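In this section we walk through a basic example: taking a raw amino acid sequence and producing a predicted 3D structure, encoded as discrete structure tokens. The instruction is simple. Fold the sequence below.
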Amino acid sequence: MTKTKTILSLILNLVIALVTTGIVISYFCGNTGVLIQYGYESFKFFTTDSNVLAAIAAVCVAAWDIRLLKQPDAVLPAWVIALKYVGTVAVMLTFCTVIFFLAPLYGPAAVLSNTSFHMHAAAPLFSLFSFCFLETDGRLRFYLTAVSIIPTLLYAIVYTINVVFIGAWNDFYSFNAGGFWYITAPIMIAASYLISVFTFALHNRMVRLSVRQIAKEDKTS
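The resulting token sequence is shown next.
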């Protein structure tokens, strides 16, 4: 990563981490809305879970960005890149679900206003941009496309059990509308995997371009 990329990565990851942390804390301070009464209930939403995961990854990347600024020859570790990838795929599933399903269903104002704008749009797009265009120290291995959908799989199981089988949750995502959860669940898992492959391909493409650019600069210097 160049110094410019490292600085931009640091800024974006700090924004993701700090704003997400502030919003999650606000859930415990009265910012609950109509769907939940208590702050801890916010974690039943994939939006919250995916953003927290992305924020944890952002903290790790930001910490290494600081180290990279002090040690220009260092690189992001493979585990940091993998964690950022998993977090990015998770929040991009949130973004795509909001844009292509929830916004048409409930209206853009309902899902993209106030703190929802960050959780549903800004954080996912910041994560994708920083991961694919700035954090280009190392390529991803293809097996990670399967690893990256584990959060989706786990949440699908929990959501289905609580909504369909024991009725502990309302169907707040409308994934069981008409009783068709057995159709919706595979669609969401497939969508998550498509997002993972897209992110994988874009990241690795930008890594290759970055390597070529560095090699070209080395030859001309």
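Looking at the output, two observations stand out. The chain has a mean pLDDT of 94. The two ends are 18 Å apart (CA to CA). In the next section we compare this with other chains.
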